[in-house]
Amino acid sequence: MTITSTSTSTTVVGCFTVLGATVPPVRVDFHLHTTWSDGRLSPGELLEEVARGRLERWAITDHDTLGGSRELAGQPGLVPGVELSCWFEGREVHVAGLGVDPDVPELEAFLV
């Protein structure tokens, strides 16, 4: 397995074993941000970078908003996500949620 990391992103390429079967190498990044939160790229610009990086599976995990995931819904390989800001023992922590449905009103209400 190869892990490539920059200050803004980590891409994992490697073989994994799932239930005893080897899964072929895949390029993934499940922690991407857009200008909907603290990212430097708009959703459209991020989509261009995803294509340039040949990511097969990827997730937008903007902080406390589904705007970026909703804006790019239906794009190949996109796993809708969100990064929730939480407090634990007096410290802010972030919890990534992957595979969420950005159209669930209760989730949107929770994030507001």
Task: Describe the structure using short key phrases.
single chain, 112 residues, alpha/beta, TIM Barrel, six-stranded mixed β-sheet, 3 helices, 20% helix, disordered N terminus
In short:
About 20% of the residues lie in helices and about 45% in strands. It is α/β, with parallel strands linked by helices and about 110 residues long.
Helix/sheet category: alpha/beta
Give the helix proportion (percent range): 10-25%
Please give the largest β-sheet. 6 strands, mixed
What would CATH call the homologous superfamily? Metal-dependent hydrolases
Highest-level CATH class: Alpha Beta
* Structure annotation, total helices: 3
How much strand?
35-45%
Low-confidence stretches: 1-8
Biggest β-sheet: strands ordered side by side in the sheet: 1-2-3-4-5-6
Q: How many discrete structural domains? A: 1
Tell me the radius of gyration: 15 Å
How far is the N terminus from the C terminus?
A: 39 Å
Oligomer: single chain
- Bulk shape: globular
What is the number of beta strands?
A: 6
Topology:
Elements: E1 2-5, E2 10-18, E3 21-32, H1 43-52, E4 57-60, H2 67-71, E5 78-88, E6 91-98, H3 105-111
Parallel strand pairs: 3-4, 4-5
Antiparallel strand pairs: 1-2, 2-3, 5-6
